[in-house]
Amino acid sequence: MLRLSIVMAATVICTTVAPAQETRFFMPSEIRQAYQNGTRSYDGNPGPAYWHNTVDYKIEVEVLPEEMMLVGKEDIVYYNNSPDELRSIVIRLYHDVFREANPRAYRVRPDDINEGVQITRLYVGENEIDVENSRSFRRQGTNATLSLPEPLASGASVRLEIDWKQKIPETTVRTGAYDSTSFFIAYWYPQIAVYDDVFGWDRLSYDFSTEFYNNLGNFDVTITAPPQYSVLATGALQNPEEVFQPEQLERYRRAQASAETVAIVALEDLENGLRHKSGTWHYVADQVSDFSFCLSDHFGWDAASQQVEDRSVLIHTYYNDVLGDGAAEVTANQRKMMKHFSEDMPGVPYPYPEFTTFIAGAGGGGMETPMMANNGGPGLGVTVHEMFHTYFPMYVRTNEKRFAWMDEGWADFNTSYIIDNFFNEDDTPLYGQFATQLRTMGTLSDLPLITSTQFMDNTNYGYASYPLPAFIYSIMLHHLGEEMFQKCYSTYIRRWALKAPTPYDFFYTFENVSGQDLSWLWKPWFFNYGNVDVAIDSYKKGKLAIRNNGTRPVPVAVQVDYEDGTSTVLDYSASILSKPEPFNVKLPRHKEITAVKVNWNVPDGDIMNNFHPSIQSLYASFEIPPTIMGTYQIKEFPVQAIVSERDDMLYLRITGSAISGYLIPKSEGSYETLDGTIKIQFHKEEGQYTNLSLQAPSAGVSATGQKASS
User: Which SS3 state, helix, strand or coil, does residue 12 take?
Assistant: First the structure.
């Protein structure tokens, strides 16, 4: 591939001098005030007055599997590092999402609707608090506002003691019982909400749809369960000699220094009725944003060590025995991805001493917590994605409740980057990964990304949080180039490690480090409604003019096909489309050119104007056989390929997927999708088209289909 990187001189504007205020694009008043107060800086650094509050948790919890119950007590010290005097504290009671009257984004099992968190004792210092008195303790949604007996001065701390109990839900939304003896426990303890320099107290209630925004904390947690249960948790195990039998202790010690996977608890051990020496497990985690744990009496436990700089990180895979050997490669894959996260992209060493992946085998995706992931299966994609969340929103404590794209988008970006570069060795531009995932683009649901996530729903939350920002990050990678992008990215993480950036801190860091004014990218993609429509404006004798009829700039890829069957691809930065006038390209060997296509692999509002000769003209010499249309049942997958006529052209839709669009005719019975990723050959029997074969080489997929009887 011939790559021509065009960086317009007009974009190279140094931004190291902080502006008096932001005038290029909208800044909400809450965030603007933080910059005026000096907690944020226009160069992308934390401001000289930056602060965040912190918490120490000492928790003892007992898991009662037969009763599906947690019983706990915690000793909390909350440090007010803000300049403000606090007269109350907001406490999150996540399990109150199961209280009867509280709103929920998802349905739950009727048996899981209960009293929520049952607080049996609450002290603030020496003062006992009556939790039934709404003047001192008022519950609303999944939050409780605790009125302090005395105001908490700036620079002071307060101690809380809470005893509580709650049911373990069988509705598994990020946490709960995956069977009667297997649990992943998250969102589980009374937690101090965030009070920050932008929004004050975070009072957004938990209804399953929102995820993380937590304080930085230190955790000292003791978990007690029946001795046949293994317990893994955030942090490092403090008492392995007390819990492990000699054989498991020897394997645990070996795994701490082994690059090869070691079975700490093998499936054979479970079959032989393994019981640990003790059921009390002690874990400590410093400077993390949350704590979770998992346990089962029938999960295998593999582990190995990965070298990160001058230290060893212990990596665990804890998996349901029904998976058998299905999780055998997960630990080795985790070692590889941690290495490439640390050394390549983003190029920041994994910051914690351990990582654990819990695999229930229940299907579906995954859920991140500090140093842990709760994954439905052992797939490579979900394993990469959830481990990457260590960086966002854990190490860099982004506010996922309001700006989910600040962590999910990076996780999607890094998943594609790591798998392409280090598992599949695929060097095609990353921006081409996302075309089929951005169907919402340009619709009424395509809200500007600066919109607080709390105002999104199931029509746009996934789109706006995952593939759209990942696509934008890939545009930045392509524009800045690998070296500069990685420098900006790693600087952003290091600047904001353990802190809580806003979107503007991200924008300004990338501008500050690159020395470029990137508002041509920020404004249309993060602040404005809009769409992409790159089109061939004109073509004559090798002179190609490309225009962006839309409002959002994207990279430009031009594929040129020649008479001898060869092709070349010309590749340009999105910055060339930041101007209204057409971009002109002189194509080589123009007398030999047979076809030109532009941005076939990039999201586009009107893909039909991206081809020369046009798709319609290609059909002029083809007659669409009536028998080619119909529904083909795919043998290898539970989907159907539906072929129909639309606008005098063939149109393909594959059920259960995002794949749909016009087909380009290549020869009799032979077609391909507009992006060239899927090739279809229709086959005749007795003069009638009755079946097809489908190839998707980039995905490694081959399939066959039989036409359903009419």
Answer: coil
* Element spanning 464, H or E: helix 461-465
CA distance 103 to 208: 9
DSSP labels, 124-180: ETTEE--TT-TTTEEEETTEEEEEEEEEE-TT-EEEEEEEEEEEPPSS-SSSEEEET
Asked if 265 and 301 touch (Cβ cutoff 8 Å), the reply is yes
The tokens of 522 are what? 């920020």
Mind listing the pLDDT tens digit for each residue in 45-97? 999 999 999 999 999 999 999 999 999 999 999 999 999 999 999 999 999 99
Query: What 3-state class would DSSP assign to 422?
Result: helix
Cβ distance 236 to 371 under 8 Å?
no
The C-alpha atoms of residue 335 and residue 387 are separated, in whole angstroms, by: 11
Lookup result for tokens 């908490």: 152
∠ CA 535-540-544, nearest 5°, is 40
Q: Cβ distance 195 to 82 under 8 Å? A: yes
How far is the C-alpha of 704 from the C-alpha of 693, rounded, in Å? 4
Minimal CA–CA distance to 60: which of 224, 183, 243, 228? 224
- Residue 90 three-state SS: strand
- Counted residue by residue, the chain has a size of 710
Q: What is the pTM of this model?
A: 0.93
Tokens of 376: 């439905």
What amino acid is encoded at 397 in this protein? R
What pLDDT is recorded for position 20? 61
The answer to whether 207 and 264 are in contact (CB under 8 A) is: no
Interhelix angle 408-418/380-388, nearest 10 degrees: 130
Q: At residue 378, what is the residue type?
A: P
Helix (H) or strand (E) holding 77: strand 69-79
